[in-house]
Predict the structure.
Amino acid sequence: MVSDVAALYCRTPRRQDPDPVGIDVQEALGVAEARRLGLDLPPRCVYIDHRGIDWQRGRPRAGWDGLLSALRAGGVGSVLLYRPESLASQSFDLAELFALADERGITLHGFGADSERRDAAFWAALRNTVETVCATRSMVSAAAQSAHIAAAVSGRPHGGGRRPYGYTTGMGELVAAEAAIVAEIFDRFVEGASLRSIAQDLNARGVPTSTGKSWSVGGIGRIVDAPRYAGLRVRHGEVVAGRTAVWPPCVDVDVWERARALRRGAGQERPRHVYLLTGLVVCAVCGGHMVGSSVNGYRVYACAGHLPSSPGHRRRYISADNLEGQVVEQALVMLEGWEAEDARTVPIASPYEVPDPSANSTAPRALIVIRSAAAMDGVVIGPGARFAWNRLSAEHKAAVLRFLFTVIRIGPSTKPRPVFDAGRADIVPAVLRRP
């Protein structure tokens, strides 16, 4: 028997999308469509990808991957897709969805903001388009991969992208001035200089990157990590031992190996700190996120935005321990007062507003927070919530707080610096969809 449980998938519209409907509206439309069809749509079956960049090649997509995993696990009889034709460019992903639907007997339902529904002819046309595109792309990919492998085996430059720093286009020759900078970067790094200090020095000297921009810590790190600068050949991400490439090196192999050893050692020694409110805390003045940091050895949330017109703004921060304690206490009070069905009333997507100092008007920026229904798995609610809280891992606690609250806005302090000002925090809880 086919299940009447439905799953809903929504994603943030792309900039070029002709129908830029937000995911909160998509979710509401999907809930209404499920109700019209008589389908059960539990919150755990709402899957959302809220960043357009997640659909770039090779990036994990929590929403889409979660949807496919749920279909493979069984128990889902229908899938609701907002404007499925907008996914046509992701032909292989749609092909996988169609294959799962055929294998499991799952019904696909498409809908749009204008209440238009997709009929059998629509799905047949979309399937035909997907099959044609997949076949064409597979042929092109096979030919390109064959040429890529041949170049790699022979030690010739392969791949694409922008011109690598230090080399002419095609890596046939060195750019003398840039190759000297590459050698300098390696020498200074193996002698103990940090990536940040190297980047700052190059920028202070006015040395541009290959694209004419300023150097970043990541840019310096990518140069130090790249085997090409030692004339080493790479296949499938691994250095081919004992085989050199046809392009000229910028540094000796032993220098590159010393730099790589230092990079690996530095990565292992870096401590990992968990900030429970990451992604929730924003500055009430500029709207920028406040990120976990350290000031004079104390854990804080510091504003990462820039507002030159506000004196002292760049020094805005708040004690992480005190703020987390304040928010956790409010969360525990909420959980202690909840009943079993309250978690189901929290919307998966909620809009909120933050200041937009870049705009000429006073209009704020509209943002959306996305929640994971799985955050509440294993969380005790009711009278035992406080006792069970400390049994959760730090990552699970952070996920629960992101589920319970929409945003935490931090305003200017009205008290002397050593005193924690709890009134600075505007803690906005999730809006419950109560009848």
